[in-house]
Amino acid sequence: MMTVSAQKTMLMFASLLLLMGAAVVKAANEEPHHWVDEARKDIDRAWMVKPVYGVAKNSIIIIGDGMGLQSVTAGRIWKGQQMGRSGEEYKLSFEDFPNVGLSKTYNVDRQVPDSAGTASAMLSGYKANVGTLGVNSNVAYGPSCATYRADRRLTTVLDYALQEGKGSSRA
Question: Which of 5, 59, 71, 115 is catalytic?
Fold first, then answer.
């Protein structure tokens, strides 16, 4: 008789095999020049983007929780496969934005980050402890706020926008 741990492992393995089989989509039979033409179109579109100089009137910061490169790639492939294609050639809506950035961050006190501390880091520029939001790494996570003091609050890009008379919101 298998242990509970072995049963769970077998169930996960069987589920993975089923998912892999369901995700197989035959790629279109393109001519060799197809991908060169696609790349040429991408380069032509990139050259048409005009640089903007000066100070931005507004900016929108979109922080997608759990949207590492692997998750975005998986989402792109899945969405493309839902449209009957292989998936890799599909573009998610935000991948066509004219300007995007990528940020990798983590907590001061943990190797695997949480959303609160990483959002604090992205919006303020200072890394924070797991489970803390809007405060520096001198504030420890826990049921007591004993380590919180007003001087440990982080100033965020939203605070700076408000100081400049701009609006800010979150969704």
Answer: 115
